């Protein structure tokens, strides 16, 4: 057997295993809640089963944008050009037109509030040169953060059969954003923003219905179902929760609200920091999580 044939066979077998694992993931939903201060796992169900991230992917796109800001490779007022590729990404986008520009701040706010696909691609092309190259950087960063089961293939979360993650990994990413970029993390609490004279409202309904929720990101594709990563604070205790694979947005939000009710119910004696910026890095610890 030639080396080329051997490599092709290994790739095919790897893909088959991955797709087989995802078939199992479709059999049920996943959820995960962790105390942001202590790392204690408060609830876990199918937390390590592969699923599609959908627009939760954009959390990593923003992580790398914030990292570039801190490293001096981007500025808030920097202009990003919308390529034809970026402009083609449906359905949610700023739709300014190919060849036109937006600032990085406009791009970031549109991702946070509207989940704008064109903005995510514009950031990726600015930093990586192409979606594919940027996706490789995304996956590399995921490994550095301890996201052992996540593979990124694009910056937006639009469907790709090889782009997979888990509820645990998405919680890790949420905690990492909170820990590494405390000032930028505050942007996730935005319920709307103004873009060139238009007032635009976000569609993360948990922000409106549940007191204490201050982000982070929703996601949906036909394959993934309805996903959400949520940060919530009550009586000094902050948790990060993940719900994946629900059949409707309403069921997803109800599931998350129930998880927050149960995991924040005993928060009166908690000693966690009230601000994400004061939180140290945490190591998740299993302590009799519920199912």
UniProtKB/TrEMBL annotation:
In the record, the note on similarity to other proteins reads: Belongs to the peptidase S11 family.
Show the ranges annotated as biased composition (Polar residues). Answer: 276-291
The record, for Pfam families, names: Peptidase_S11
The record, for InterPro entries, names: Beta-lactam/transpept-like (IPR012338), Peptidase_S11 (IPR018044), Peptidase_S11_N (IPR001967)
- Please list the residue ranges that the record marks as compositionally biased, kind Low complexity: 265-275
Keywords, A to Z, come to: Cell shape, Cell wall biogenesis/degradation, Hydrolase, Peptidoglycan synthesis, Signal
> What is the name attached to this protein's record?
Peptidase M15
Q: What Gene3D superfamilies does the record point to?
A: DD-peptidase/beta-lactamase superfamily
Residues noted as binding substrate in the record, renumbered to the chain = 217
Residues of the active site: 55, 58, 115
Q: Where is this region: Disordered?
A: 265-291
Q: SUPFAM superfamilies from the entry?
A: beta-lactamase/transpeptidase-like (SSF56601)
Tell me which stretches of the chain form a coiled coil.
none
């Amino acid at each position: 057997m030639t080396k080329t044939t051997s490599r092709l066979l290994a790739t095919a077998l790897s893909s088959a295993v991955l797709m087989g694992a995802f078939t199992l993931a479709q059999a049920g939903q996943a959820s995960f809640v962790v105390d942001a201060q202590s790392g204690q796992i408060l609830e876990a169900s199918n937390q390590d089963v592969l699923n599609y991230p959908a627009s939760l992917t954009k959390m990593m796109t923003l992580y790398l944008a914030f990292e570039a800001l801190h490293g001096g490779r981007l500025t808030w007022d920097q202009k990003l050009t919308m390529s034809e590729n970026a402009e083609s990404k449906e359905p949610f986008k700023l739709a300014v037109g190919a060849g036109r520009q937006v600032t990085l701040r406009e791009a970031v706010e549109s991702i946070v509030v509207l989940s704008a696909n064109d903005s995510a691609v514009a950031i990726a092309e600015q930093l990586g040169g192409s979606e594919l190259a940027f996706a490789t950087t995304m996956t590399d960063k995921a490994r550095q953060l301890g996201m052992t089961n996540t593979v990124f293939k694009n910056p937006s979360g639009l469907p790709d059969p090889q782009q997979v993650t888990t509820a645990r990994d998405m919680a890790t990413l949420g905690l990492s954003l909170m820990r590494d970029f405390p000032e930028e993390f505050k942007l996730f609490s935005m319920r709307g923003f103004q873009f060139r004279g238009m007032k635009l409202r976000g569609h993360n309904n948990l922000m409106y219905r549940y007191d204490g929720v201050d982000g982070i990101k929703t996601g949906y594709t036909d394959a993934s179902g309805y996903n959400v990563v949520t940060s919530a604070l009550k009586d000094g205790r902050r948790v990060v929760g993940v719900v994946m694979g629900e059949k409707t947005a309403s069921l997803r939000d109800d599931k998350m609200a129930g998880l927050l009710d149960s995991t924040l119910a005993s928060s009166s004696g908690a000693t966690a920091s009230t601000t994400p910026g004061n939180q140290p890095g945490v190591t998740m610890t299993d302590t009799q999580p519920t199912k």
